[in-house]
Amino acid sequence: MASAVIVIVFSIELVYDDVFSVWETIWAAKHVSSSHFVLFIALAMVELYRDIILENNMDFTDIIKFFNEMAEHHNTKQILKLARDLVYKVQTLIENK
C-alpha cells in the first residue's frame, strides 16, 4: 500500500513521459533486484538534492516545498541510475557481511 502512495507521488513529481519509465522500472526491479525499489527511488531523490537541503538547512516543511517547486524538473534518468546504484550497494553490503 505504501508503495502505491509513493508511485502516485512520483506521478506528480515527474514529467508525464517519465512516469511510465519509473513505473516500468519499479515493476521490473520487483522481479530482478528489489521488491522495495520504489524506496530506493525516493532515497535517490533525497540523495540527489542532499547538498541543497543541507546548505539551506531545510526542515521537513522546506523540503516538501522544495520538492513541490521542483515538480517536473527532475532528471529521471539520473534518479533511476542512482537508485540502481543504491540497490547494488545495499546488496553488496548484505552479501559481504
- Helix/strand order: HHHHHH
Number of strands: 0
Mean pLDDT score, rounded? 82
What is the 3D shape?
A: flat
Q: Largest sheet, if any?
A: none
Structural class: mainly alpha
Please indicate the percent range of residues in DSSP E strands (runs of 2 or more): under 5%
Helix content: over 70%
Tally the helices. 6
Which ranges are low-confidence, i.e. pLDDT below 50, for 5 or more consecutive residues? none
Rg estimate, integer Å: 14 Å
- Give the N-terminus to C-terminus distance in angstroms: 31 Å
Describe this structure in words.
- It is a single chain.
- The chain is mainly α and 97 residues long.
- Helices cover 80% and strands 0% of the residues.
- The chain has six helices and no strands.
- It has helices at residues 2-13, 16-32, 37-48, 50-55, 60-70, 76-95.
- Helix 3 crosses helix 6.
- The model has no long low-confidence stretch (mean pLDDT 82).
Compile the SSE list and pairings:
Elements: H1 2-13, H2 16-32, H3 37-48, H4 50-55, H5 60-70, H6 76-95
Helix pairs in contact: 1-2, 3-6
Protein name: SGSM1 protein
Organism: Polypterus senegalus (Senegal bichir)
Pick out its properties.
97 residues; mainly alpha; 0% strand; flat; SGSM1 protein; Rab-GAP_TBC_sf
Short description:
By secondary structure, the protein is an all-alpha fold.
